[in-house]
Amino acid sequence: MLDSDTKARIDSARDILVGKVPDPKSQVEQITIALIYKFMDDMDRQSEELGGKSTFFTGDFKKYRWANLLDKRLGGHERLLLYADSIEKMNENKNIPQLFRDIFKGVFLPYRDPETLNLFLKEIAGFSYDHSERLGRAMPGSSARPATLLTSSSPWWTRRSTKPSLIPPAAPRAFSFRRSNTS
Known about the structure:
The protein is mainly alpha-helical. 50% of the residues lie in helices and 0% in strands. Helix 1 packs across helix 2 (24-49), helix 1 (4-17) runs antiparallel to helix 6 and helix 4 (76-89) crosses helix 6. The radius of gyration is 16 Å and the shape is globular.
């Protein structure tokens, strides 16, 4: 069951977007993109803390780390440009799984208001990768089947299968935002 803190954070993120992104489906998509982005950075930080290396935000993409987005030295317009640039270019990042590149393909920031983005990013910053198991059920308007990427206890690319393959689950089913008629 979805805990009240997670639901409140999702509702707050939607409330922040509602004036700039009136379509509920688009709100869910923006929240999902931001959460995937944040969780990729969380996983990089966890790897570094355990003595490993960053996987997602390396090379030309290092400038897009979550901490850089929230850097207090950035002005609102600079942050907006950095975030818009990052989500638009993330599908070119060869260091992320193909499924993530497919998800980020064609993504753009549908508003250009720095204050809205600042509030939105602060709300998303309240989530951490350890919340990922609960998030599939949290997304309003999502299907009854939780979003695969946001509900698994471990990322799909780390799971063992009978075949030595890194083929991800089908993207259309993993991120279906349509309401299901079954409950």
